[in-house]
Amino acid sequence: MRRLLWFWLAIGWIGFVVLPWYQQEYGFWTLEWLTDGYTFYGDYAPAILQGFMFDRPWLMPVAVFLLTPFLVIKRPRQDPLFGNVLIASGLCGIGYMLLQGFAIGVFGFNYPFLTALFGELDVRQYGLGYGALFCAASFLVLFCTGLAARGTMRGDVFVTTSIGVIIALVATFVFFPVSRILISAFVNHDGVLSAADFLRNFAASTVWGLGCFAGGVCGVAWNTAILAILTATSTTLLGLAFALVVTRTGFVWKKSLRVLTVLPIITPPFVIGLALILLFGRSGTVTQFFADLLGVEAGRWLYGLPGIWLAQTLSFTPISFLVLIGVVEGVSPSMEEASQTLRADRWQTFVRVSLPLMRPGLANAFLLAFIESMADFGNPMVLGGNYDVLSTDIFFAIVGAQNDQGRAAVLAIILLVFTLSAFGAQRFWLGKKSYATVSGKADNGAHISLNPGLRRLCYGTVIPWALFTVVIYAMIFFGAFVKRWGFDNSLTLDNYVEAFGIGWSDHGIVWAGAAWDSFWTTLNISVIAAPLTAAVGLTTAYLLVRQNFRGKNIFEFGTMLSFAIPGTVIGVSYILAFNVPPLELTGTGVILVICFIFRNMPVGVRGGIAAMSQLDKSLDEASLTLGANSFTTFRRVILPLLRPAIVAALVYSFVRAITSVSAVIFLVSADHNMATSYIIGLVENGRYGVAIAYCSVLILVMLMVIVTVQGLIGKRKLRREDRVATDISTTGGKTAVSGLREKHS
Amino acid sequence: MTLKTRAGSVVFENVTKTFGKGAVTAIDDVSFNIHPGELVTLLGPSGCGKTTTLRMIAGLEHPTAGKIMIGDKDVTHLPATDRDVSMVFQSYALFPHMSVVENVAYGLTVSGQKKNEAHDRAREGLGLVGLADYGDRLPSELSGGQQQRVAVARALVLEPEVLLLDEPLSNLDAKLRRHVRTEIRDLQQKLGLTAVYVTHDQEEALAVSDRIIVMNRSVIAQQGTPRQLYEEPASAFIADFIGDANLVQGEVYAVNGDMADVDIGGERVTLRQRAHGIGAVEVAVRPDAVRLSDGAAGAQMSLKGNVTHATYLGSAMHYTVQCAVGELFVIDGRIDTPIKAGSEVGIGFAARGLALVSGQ
């Protein structure tokens, strides 16, 4: 503990004395600040010089809280003073940093009463940089070490600090931004609190109007709700049909159907919409075929509710399918066998036993699709036409000509209330109603097959739909090779050349294609975000599964919350929260990385929880009684056994970062443009060919990553580790795959 | 064998443990003393608090009140990591991703020993349990009994002051169980270890222990040597739990010094008095202490009963008999002359195998 303390105090002092306190205009990692007048230039100076030389004396008290720990560092840890001083130093340090950060901004004091009190400030301050980050980290560890010394978590420093760090991160990057939305909703253009503005935005007829029932246009809230209910219904029914075919019939291509479940993971959300345009758009193949055949004008029916609904149903059916496979398999065969021995025929058994047992699972699938549909940005963006939904409306409120943050905030709150209610219903209402009949006991017997009528119905739905999905994906790859869809259908490689052309010059390779820039940025950011996401997610899972502490339920809810927050809302909230000091992150790559970490963390948490629940707790306890501390136990026992879950979390967060669009579109900047937002730009300009070419490349890259990783896991089986009890290797392989698919369940 | 032992004592002083906000009391004001080199068994039905007690010795749970000492050192608030005890888990808890020798060496390497030394000592430890050649295998490649011995070796190489065993035999089949429990007992005696053994199997407890602490409903019901517990159960619970005794009503009609004359439904026996005065008492009757006689011999006896079930079990006959003092479960070794269900029998009692007990 003492060594740890010295280390973190050193970090704190490095942050205060050595590193630049404020953010660097050209980024920290360019190291441009080192050669460009470091220490003697006000923007680059560390806090200690800021205080002495650059008229920012308000930074000096930070040093006090970095000094106080030295008073007690030699004392025994049982001494209450030791812990108390550390707690106080950490708390005061962080508290003071926040206080001065929020009090003094780019225009001097942020609040008039401070100006009145201290007079006008002619020095301003910018966003906090690495110096401040080091100090804050140091204070956080001091605080947690102090708590541990006072007996929190049985005096376990590792566990206490982990909890502290996760809480601090979630508070900063989930709760703070979301609360910023709430504030913005009640603030008018002059920055004054005003309920009237909120009410005006909230009660507007564009939001709640019911015109569509009278032949007009409905409010955006109703539009969103109607779409979500339609999509949830259709995907749940289709998903159930798929699940029944796979688990209860002798269908020949069952295995191929399962491949469908991987598709949504690697498909950027608007790709389906794009493919639909190629088929059913005004110059779409099918449209033109029928237009020629029947001699009618090509319609625009695709743009609007029907198109979005179709696209979302195509996009989310695999998710329902995945969830419902588990549900359908979860009904114990012996229940059905019992029913049959009690003289029920197959139809009666299905209707009166199997279906009721699946009911909570069906509701779960419905709610998930509901949330997904509400949060979907890509398809409405591409196919919306005049049909406004919340997620796109929020986007246009911010980036459009209106630039109305208040309106965006109000819409975001409405969307948030919708999704959180669904999320809450799913967790609290369904959580208690699970009929999962799978127990630890070996359950013999096979699922009975469907009765013929039902089977024909399922086949009749599933086969055409699966073929349709195949056609859609074929379009994505075919469309990229067509010169100008619908007008000039000659084959060409132009689209690829334009996006990914490579030239050679005297200086070596020239990345001539227009897409390379965003492509490399995307890979870069995704590769950085993936391990961080996995680390945060799995640590959280460890704390949730293996540790007991007060407020654990709230902790869990907080960490899972960002799952239910639509990307658009996250995007808006990040813009509102991180556009001004003390945390001025917009326009950087860091904000993208952070956004991905906290958007995708819940998946890491879930995957980790699932994997860790399978590890007997006595393994940890054995390690503890053998003299290892909790950190060693985590590192040497739990992490190695979680390897499949780690790999899954890595791959998943990597892939998710690549396909994500809704939050990203708010946060990209000229320097950091991401693939998806670039593609959206192409679509808006009607450049479908290039857009589709880019999408197909992304899909291929992700497929390659997944296949490679699966291959690596598979290969490990040949080595020694996989002679490990079958439970490890099988769950290992399984968790990797199911972890990947976990995201929606 | 170079394994040294530093057997320590374990002392519980008024230890109480509640879970939740005082909702569930797992251990209620328990005190006991385990001497160095002794094997003490914590015995009791499930939920009696025996495992919680063991986990508190290990440091995996911490008492709500009271004091725990190991080897004369107060360890009440010390976490498991810092205690000088090691534990054999019910599930063995072998790390599946480490080889057998890595498992055994784990405790040594995490406490800072060099890998080579640790592995050498681990192999010694494996030799001790007869698995010297199995070091490079993975736990999954061993049989249940072998895994169990690895778990023991892993605990032993740390030379703990106290060895804790949490139902170490419950995952083995019946035949192996008897074999392994003898091995454990031999090893404990050879090394002079202090060991605390948790089980719910009374036969196992009787077989391995120097002393048994029987727990029931969060408190100690009785402690003593196996013989004391079996022959002089302090309560009806102990009599029933250890050796399936029948509890019948009797009456003490005379007391002579240590001994009491007792009437059970007309049959008269003389038992140790154990502070019972004249009047109604409860008598614990071991199933094998009941003598059934049918036919003419039975007709002469004063306590009569009716056999409702007769079961042939190879080595013995099991009978259920209804009689004036209640239902008796009887084990009779005379398998060649079985009594048919439905027969009228006379009931007598052997001199041993009966004891006066206080009620619950």
If you had to describe this structure to a student in words, what would you say it looks like?
- The complex is a heterodimer of chains A (745) and B (360).
- Helices cover 68% and strands 2% of the residues of chain A.
- Chain A has 745 residues and is mainly α.
- Chain A has three domains: 2-150, no CATH class; 227-403 and 422-479, MetI-like (MetI-like fold, Orthogonal Bundle); 517-744, Orthogonal Bundle (MetI-like fold).
- In chain A, the strands form three sheets. In chain A, strands 1-2 form a two-stranded antiparallel sheet. A two-stranded antiparallel sheet of chain A has the order 3-4. A two-stranded antiparallel ribbon of chain A has the order 5-6.
- In chain A, helix 8 crosses helix 21 (405-430), helix 18 packs antiparallel against helix 21 (405-430) and helix 27 (589-613) packs antiparallel against helix 30 (643-659).
- The longest helix of chain A has 31 residues, at 516-546.
- Chain A starts with a helix and ends with a helix.
- Chain B is of the alpha+beta class and 360 residues long.
- The longest helix of chain B is centred in the middle third of the chain and has 18 residues, at 174-191.
- The mean pLDDT of chain B is 89.
- The two termini of chain B are 48 Å apart.
- Chain B has two domains: 10-231, 3-Layer(aba) Sandwich (Rossmann fold); 247-357, OB fold (Dihydrolipoamide Acetyltransferase, E2P) (Beta Barrel).
- Chain B is elongated and about 80 Å long.
- Chain B has nine helices and 20 strands.
- Chain B has a six-stranded mixed beta sheet, sandwiched between helices. A five-stranded antiparallel beta sheet of chain B has the order 13-12-11-14-20.
- Classes of the chains: A mainly alpha (745), B alpha+beta (360).
- Chains A and B meet through helix 28 and helix 29 of A and strand 6 and helix 2 of B.
